[in-house]
Amino acid sequence: MKRIFSSFWRNKSRWLIYSALILITILNLLPIALTVIVSFKSYEDVIRTPPVLFPCDTPTQSFDLSSCRWSLEGYERVLVPKPSSTSPLGFDLTGPMVTVYGGNTLLYATISSIIVVLLAATSGYAFSRYRFRGHKALLTAIIAITGVPLLTNLLALYQMGITMRTLGLPYDDRFFIIIVYIGFFLPLSVWIAKGFFDAIPRDLEDAALIDGCSPLEALFYIIIPLTRPAMIAIFMLTFVSVWNEFLAGYLLISKNSNKPLMFGFYDFLGQNLINLQGVAAVSLVIALPVIILFLFFRRSFFTAMVEGSVKG
Amino acid sequence: MKGWADFVSKLHAMKKQNWFRNSLPFWLILPTVTILLVVQVYPAFYTVWLSMQERGPEGWEFIGLKNFERLFNLGQFGESIGLTIVFLVGHILLTMVGGFFTAFLLNQKIHFSGFFITLLFIPWVLSQIIVGFMFRLLVAPDYGVFSGILINPSLFPPNGLSVLTAVPPRPWFSDFPFPPSAAMILLILASTWRALPFATLLILSAMQMIPAEVIESSRIDGANGWQIIRHITVPLVLPTLVVAIFNTILNGVNGVGLVLSLTDGGPGTATQIISYLLYSIGWSRIQFGRAAALALLVAVVNWILIMGTLGITKVEERDSQS
User: Fold this and answer.
1) Which value does ipTM take for this structure?
2) Same domain assignment for residues B171 and B244
3) How many angstroms separate the Cα of B121 from the Cα of each of A305, B22, B52, B103, B118?
4) Are residues B58 and B90 both part of a single domain?
5) What is the CATH number of domain A96-311?
6) Measured between beta carbons, which residues in chain B are less than 8 angstroms from residue A311?
7) Which of A8, A25, A215 shows the shortest C-beta gap to B24?
8) What confidence tens digit (pLDDT) does each residue in A53-91 have?
9) Chain A within 8 Å of B320 (Cβ-Cβ)?
10) B26 and A CB contact within 8 Å
């Protein structure tokens, strides 16, 4: 045993590490890869028993690459393309995922992320640069809030929505859910922003303040540009969290036309339990935008994750 | 009115610039605090109030602590706590061991580590209900890719195994749901799959903080690989490990979406963990008072965990300062 370990260290048998990592990565991506395969199968191949991994078998051979029966049936079921002369692609996507839910989620995620970044920057600045009465208590309260799950607040928020509707107060599903999302993802962002602002030396803004710049100008022209990676991280983290959030959007929004993408997915899942290729396609269509965002901004995600969790 | 005039003249007397500067932090924080009061603080108090109410014919009626009493008398409540414990222990053990192992591999001086990290992290950006469906797809009765292997009687005696419908095994200790049912194991695997990137990243960042000299000098002193892990890496990573455990528990306790799309609490009540029970009491049975009582219990547990995390990170900061 000892010898194995010492040779492992001294000879730096990298291949062992590499092969372990490659194995872990493959295992890790397996569920996604299998979903991709199922999404490109036709219904006849999905419901075969015993199940086959690739729809590539012929009566004589178990695997023949030339006779694979890949199909876009699942994607058609989700996106419902209809021929159209006006669109540049030659067809319009008319599925509710695209025309209703996708737009809603994009709206909610974008607006709430922008507001979260703004509020996290301003309050993070206040917490980082000023000492006022209740400074520490308020910071601790904000972090304590971070841990209270949305689930336990949903009962009250649900009643709040009902009360506002029955009392005839100016109420809009979309406005309400955006406020809820902001309130839910803001505390962590305040902590992340404060952490980054603390790391910026005060000398920079002091010089600007002496030159007659106001504290707000210092925040927007000096601090925020310097911590742009952190701001992007907060935006991305909130955007992905709102995009992936299911329960609040499902329960708090009353009008079907205002419901988000994840409700669309759940609804579709309920209606297509047998059309697994369609559900696989819709889950990939929904997941693809955030996966692409993640691939482009992975560094931001990593900083936000580490900052946010070690602090809270 | 005189008081108001006084106040206004006093305001004017203040140097405008100075006044603005002094109250600036207040204005900067005000919007944040307002939103948090509406979305987080008010609901917390409302939940406390709601937990002592019952929906009667003429609106809410005060019934004291009866909701808690009924909750404790509900057979599913005790069962659900047992299931939650089994779920959390399995989930945390797998996540921490897997996370530590992966972080350890990534922390070696290897090429392409950025490439591996990127690929390993994709599950983390997927939504819970989508992850639930992806894992359901693997074992869906008859059609799942693994169903063909799992229903083979010679591998899984006596009759093969259909994960989503299998009857839970007989518990070893009276009512405690151990060994877990096949569906529970699948739930643990799915939730570990999604939580693993997060744990790995936290542990990796802690490992990278360990100064290279410490490891180098202990190696010169003759420590072998195992001793270095046992006596240097693990103790130095431990505080982060605890933070990661708390975070994992929080996410694990509160994940309803995964259960909803993976097993829907079933078969029977085999995967009805506490968050799913809360959801089903509240929105399937529409018993808001009782759900609020349960929500309160869950929130208290969460709150204790958060305070624990805060305490530990504070200890860590103090250590690094001294």
Assistant:
1) 0.88
2) yes
3) 12, 45, 43, 12, 5
4) no
5) 1.10.3720.10
6) 313
7) A215
8) 888 777 777 777 777 888 888 888 888 888 877 777 777
9) no
10) yes
